[in-house]
Amino acid sequence: MAPIRTSIITLFVIATAACGGDEPRTPAAAAASGAVGVSPDEYRKAQQAYADSVLNASRSSKDVVEKLGKEYAVGSVRLRDSLALLAEKTDCFLKGRETDPYLAGTVSFFVFMSPVGSNVVRVQEDATTWTSAAGNIVNSCLNIASQKWKFNESFGKQGAYITQVQFK
């Protein structure tokens, strides 16, 4: 029996060494030993830097209008500010943030003004950029909410307008 016991003990020692020995493997211990790549604060800063790069790389309203064609125009500052206020009053961005707490992006809104005011307000999907796919949640929510938004004719003459709102 002695050779079997010796073999079991030897196997246990080898297995223990291969598994890292007596080192604790709790997240706190791993962080203290430097095993974790970045601290939460470093991760937050990296995510903020990424969000800033996405926001800065977004195409401007003017660029979006040029791509869409001459039948579109850039919406007025008043229209943009009104859309930003209405979007802020919804919980759409918060819904996206539930999925991705670092979510940020630029939403391009399409607004069609008829002679008596707006009759279509929606997200211009192909001209909207987000830091993650959680932005799709925000886009869908804003599309539903924007069906109730109306602007009178003082916001612009008849035509199609693009204006952007940033979420940080």
Label this structure with key terms.
168 residues, 5 strands, elongated, alpha+beta, 5-stranded mixed sheet
Task: Explain the overall architecture.
The chain has helices at 2-18, 27-32, 40-57, 61-68, 77-89, 92-99, 135-146, and strands spanning 72-74, 105-114, 117-123, 129-130, 159-167. It has 168 residues and is an alpha+beta fold. Strands 1, 2, 3, 4 and 5 form a five-stranded mixed beta sheet that branches. The chain is elongated.
Please give a quick description of this structure.
This protein is an alpha+beta fold and 168 residues long. It has helices at 2-18, 27-32, 40-57, 61-68, 77-89, 92-99, 135-146; strands at 72-74, 105-114, 117-123, 129-130, 159-167.
Topology summary:
Blueprint: H1 2-18, H2 27-32, H3 40-57, H4 61-68, E1 72-74, H5 77-89, H6 92-99, E2 105-114, E3 117-123, E4 129-130, H7 135-146, E5 159-167
Parallel strand pairs: 1-5
Antiparallel strand pairs: 2-3, 2-4, 2-5
Question: What general form does the structure show?
Answer: elongated
Let me know the largest β-sheet.
5 strands, mixed
Uncertain parts: 4-33
Q: What is the terminal-to-terminal distance?
A: 70 Å
- Average per-residue pLDDT, rounded, comes to 84
Radius of gyration: 27 Å
Query: Number of DSSP helices?
Result: 7
Element pattern in H and E: HHHHEHHEEEHE
Structural class call reads: alpha+beta
Tell me the strand percentage band.
15-25%
Number of strands: 5
How much helix, percentage-wise, in residues? 40-55%
